[in-house]
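=== RUN LOG ===
request id: a7f3
mode: sequence -> structure
chains: 1
length: 144
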Amino acid sequence: MKTFYLYIVLLFSLGCKAQEFDLRGMKRFDEKVFKDWEVNRQYVPIGDDKYFKKGDKRVQLLFNYKDNEVQIEENDTNTPYTRWATYNLETEVQTAVGQSFFNIDYGIWCFYSKIGKLERKVNQDENYKFSIRQLIEKVKKNIT
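=== RESULT ===
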């Protein structure tokens, strides 16, 4: 019976991999996620703000103690996309999430209460005749 449990433990350990950072899946703020990231010395931190890099990914942790929140901005050096999420420092729950393309806001932005309940969604594309995604596809089609 001990052998059976040992095999089960080994099986689970083989299936585990290191936790990768994914802003879309990070519903609670946890600064420990960046413990194995390199400090990005390209930026000089102001106050408690922090800048990290790992491969092509760049992350900024921007603390706003006045509003009791931290904003995480994530981008990739190979693309012009930026994703961000804001977290309440007291509850560590995600309170807002959105994205931009060349600093143009696009897509659905979601805003949550301090306890993580969805309060509203804002479609950043609704004032335009076509979305950023449609623009990207059109440019790709015209280039080829």
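=== NOTES ===
The first strand starts at residue 38 and ends at 39.
Residues 2-15 form the longest helix (14 residues).
=== END ===
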